[in-house]
Amino acid sequence: MPRRISAPLLALALAVANTSAGIAREWRDSECSRDRGDDYEICTDGESIAVFWDDGSYINGYCEDLGYDFDYKGMSKAEAVSFAKEVCR
After folding, report:
1. 75: how many CB neighbours lie within 10 A of its CB?
2. Model confidence pTM above 0.70
3. Could you read off the pLDDT of 36-54 as tens digits, one per residue?
4. Residue 86: exposed, middle, or buried by beta-carbon count in 10 A (0-12, 13-18, 19+)?
5. pLDDT > 80? residue 21
6. Do residues 57 and 73 lie in contact, with contact meaning Cβ atoms separated by under 8 Å?
7. What is the number of helices (H) and of strands (E) in the chain?
8. CA distance 1 to 3
9. DSSP conformation class of 4
10. DSSP string spanning 72-88?
11. 49 CB-contact burial (10 Å; exposed 0-12 / middle 13-18 / buried 19+)
């Protein structure tokens, strides 16, 4: 019986680790900027993009392939990808 329980727990732990990996990126101050009056901060290193809103929402992913390995919170995926496309121009 313990083996049946441990396999699902291991799968859950791996799933949580994989979903949090995208937001675990450490951004340097030099990679982030905020325009006066904006309620968000944009971070980019030339390949990755992240936007962090003051209300806790965020988008985080790669400009080259926004449909793959793209994290977001506080909006729909379509809204997140649309905003990221504007920022990635």
Report:
1. 15
2. no
3. 888 999 998 878 889 999 9
4. exposed
5. no
6. yes
7. 2, 5
8. 5
9. H
10. EESS-HHHHHHHHHHHH
11. buried
